[in-house]
Amino acid sequence: MELIEKYFGAELTPEQRERFARLYDLYAEWNAKINVVSRKDFESLYLKHVLHSLAIACVCRFDAGARICDVGTGGGFPAVPLAILFPEARFTAVDSIGKKITVVRGVVSALGLQNLEAVNGRVEALEGRFDYVVSRAVTDMAELMGWVWNKIERGQRGTLPNGLLVLKGGELAEELARAGRRFTVYDIARFFDEPFFETKKIVYLAK
């Protein structure tokens, strides 16, 4: 929780602070039943999952009413931390694995998060359109674009034009070249000084 205070403390309301503080115990409880966070990583939940998710907020702040879809949300990352930080935006967290969505729904219910809906299914079958699609290392960028590009509406409902914001790691040049677009790549180490983020990036593509 100290990490969240370090980078975002100045802007948090008491309710947001309480919700972030509760994440550890909530995920510990759920993870004992359904393993959605690697057991070896669990002690680093705030570093490797919560703060990593919030890196997106260092690149794009979402407007009130903005619609954001998290594809392949797993246990709710990045959707849950972002939904806490942006209570006026609307989030849809999608995963094809039902037990992961069970965890997300349990966490969302316990926190009383009214702005996040968890959906068990494939994003291609999802109704509606979104201002932004976010994701964390779910698949190759070209494949991800094939799933979601036609679901993103043009416009600007945040500090960046509507588009795709993807958390990635490692060497990306070949993967991005295959996708055939001009992406903007942000080094997360510009925002957070923990060594974990040295190879972590956010890949952005405007619609």
Tell me about this structure.
This protein has 207 residues and is of the alpha/beta class. The protein is built from 7 helices and 7 strands; from the N terminus they run H-H-H-E-H-E-H-E-E-H-E-H-E-E. The protein has helices at 2-8, 14-33, 45-59, 79-85, 98-111, 141-148, 173-179; strands at 67-71, 90-95, 116-120, 132-136, 163-169, 184-187, 200-206. A 7-stranded mixed sheet has the order 3-2-1-4-5-7-6, with helices on one face. Helix 5 links the parallel strand 2 (90-95) and strand 3 (116-120). Helix 2 (14-33) runs antiparallel to helix 5 (98-111), helix 3 crosses helix 4 (79-85) and helix 6 runs parallel beside helix 7. It is an enzyme of class 2 (transferase). It is found in: Cytoplasm.
What brief labels describe this structure?
207 residues; 7 helices; alpha/beta; 7-stranded mixed beta sheet; rRNA (guanine-N7-)-methyltransferase activity; 38% helix; Ribosomal RNA small subunit methyltransferase G; S-adenosyl-L-methionine; cytoplasm; rRNA processing
In short, what is this structure?
It comes from Candidatus Tidjanibacter faecipullorum. The protein is α/β, with parallel strands linked by helices.
Alpha-carbon Rg, integer: 16 Å
Distance between the termini: 34 Å
Oligomer: single chain
Output the number of helix runs. 7
Average pLDDT value? 96
Total DSSP E strands: 7
| Low-confidence runs of at least 5 consecutive residues | none
Return the string of H and E elements: HHHEHEHEEHEHEE
Structural class: alpha/beta
Into which percent range does the helicity of residues fall?
Answer: 25-40%
The main sheet comes to: 7 strands, mixed
Q: Proportion of β residues?
A: 15-25%
Task: Report strand order across the widest sheet.
Answer: 3-2-1-4-5-7-6
| Tertiary shape | globular
